[in-house]
Amino acid sequence: MSRLLLSRGQFPERLLRPTVAYILAHQQSDGAVAWFEGGHIDPWDHVEAAMGLSIGGQWEAAEQAYAWLRLRQREDGGWYASYRHGAVEDDTRAETNFVAYAATGIWHHYLVSRDRRFLNEFWPMVHAAIEFVLALQAPTGEIYWALDSRTGVSRDALVTGCSSIYKSLECAINMAAELREPTASWLKARDRLGRTLRDRPDRFDRTWESKARFSMDWFYPVLCGVVTGDAARRRLAARWKEFVEPGLGCRCVADEPWVTVAESCELSLALLASGNRRAAMDVFSWLHDYRHDDGSYWTGYVFPDAAIWPEERPTWTAAAILLAADALTGATGASSLFTSVSLPEAAQQPERTEQRDLLEQS
Predict the structure, then answer these.
(1) What's the chain's average pLDDT?
(2) Could you tell me which of 124, 127, 120 has the C-alpha nearest to residue 100?
(3) Phi, psi of 188, rounded to the nearest 5 degrees
(4) Band of pLDDT at residue 345, cut at 50, 70 and 90
(5) How many angstroms separate the CA atoms of 320 and 48, rounded?
(6) pLDDT confidence bin for 3, thresholds 50/70/90
(7) How many C-beta neighbours within 10 Å does residue 31 have?
């Protein structure tokens, strides 16, 4: 397939209409969007798929997906790790970045639809989710990765997960401001989290093997607005050759010869956020050889073997394609969500002294 180079204002609707239809075809009658036929549902990827439906104009289906999430929210504001066939599949933990991502999806749908009724309707769900997440913020700023159903708080943190939460907090703060709800405590929590992500690498991967070999740890701080401007461009340039296979895509892991479509789409978004539109267009243009006839996309490609692997076409991968295409073309009101940082004009920056004191604690 020839490379697909996208320009502003030229969303490839004809090419990606089947991609939207693929996600829609895998939405269950209760609103859940499984990974693929017979697959499970997890809160993060379910929200990703819902954002793909919003971009594709399937607003009712997207709202049904969020309604499914609301009906399964726990009393403490969280969600379990995974579900299948209408029931909880993995009740061992609630992961903080999974829980926070609900705010990103709800704000994304509002930016696309401008439906204030929807925003009001789902505000209690988002508020409860963010309060759950921030209750697991460490004194030093990072947010613990999970609440374990058996052992309690898992007191370590992930760079990728916390970066995703940082973006979700931005979305939640915007939602609160739009509805004239208080934002000060969330602004302070976001500020503390951002400072820790930028300045305290020692607060992450303390009790397990470092995740630095994963490409998401490399580009997620840029994608989610933690690192911006020249610092973002330096960060992406520093490990470009480790992770990027020209003409193929972005590796999932630096030491494995495997490129993945979703990570490549997210890298395109990070490149846009850093101001490198040309590279973002190039990376996205490589991915359409992995497109299936039905509009879905394979998970990844092992290049020494010239083999698709695994033989799966997740709905969230299809959604990542739609998010990147939207960002590159500016097709919807949410097209800049992952490529810029936007906070309410009236939001005041929190006091810094207390935060510096906290970050100096170990």
Answers:
(1) 95
(2) 127
(3) -65, -40
(4) confident
(5) 7
(6) confident
(7) 21
Phi, psi of 123 (to 5 degrees): -60, -45
CA pair distance 296, 115, nearest whole angstrom = 29
Query: Which sign, positive or negative, has the C-alpha torsion 265, 267, 271, 274?
Result: positive
- In this prediction, residues 264-284 reach a mean pLDDT of 98
Question: What pLDDT is recorded for position 7?
Answer: 86
Q: How many C-beta atoms lie closer than 10 Å to residue 199's C-beta?
A: 12
What number of CA atoms fall less than 13 Å from residue 15's CA on the CB side?
A: 20
Q: 197 lies in a domain?
A: yes
For β-strands 87-90 and 82-84, DSSP reports them as antiparallel
Domain holding 184, by residue range, is: 13-359
3 domain residue, yes or no = no
User: Do the Cβ atoms of 323 and 330 come closer than 8 Å?
Assistant: no
- Is residue 60 predicted with pLDDT exceeding 50? yes
C-alpha distances (whole Å) from 178 to each of 114, 227, 318, 327, 359 are 11, 25, 30, 23, 31
Residue 360's pLDDT band (cuts 50, 70, 90): very low
- Asked whether residue 5 is assigned to any structural domain, the reply reads no
Task: State the amino acid at position 203 in one-letter form.
Answer: R
* DSSP-derived 3-state class of residue 258: strand
What stretches of 72-226 show up as alpha helix (H) in DSSP? 96-113, 116-134, 159-178, 184-199, 215-223
Domain total of the chain: 1
Q: Is the pTM of this model over 0.70?
A: yes
CA geometry: angle at 62 spanning 56 and 63, to 5°? 145
Strand, helix or coil for residue 334 = coil
- Percent of the chain past pLDDT 90, that is, above it, reads 93
Q: How many CA atoms lie within 13 A of 97 on its CB side?
A: 20
Residue 221: which CATH number?
Answer: 1.50.10.10
7 in a domain, yes or no? Answer: no
Whether the predicted pLDDT of 43 surpasses 70: yes
Among candidate residues 138, 105, 101, the one with its CA nearest the CA of residue 119: 105
Number of C-beta neighbours around residue 302 at 10 A: 14
| Burial state string for 341-357 with b = 16 or more CB within 10 A and e = fewer than 16 | eebeeebeebeeeebee
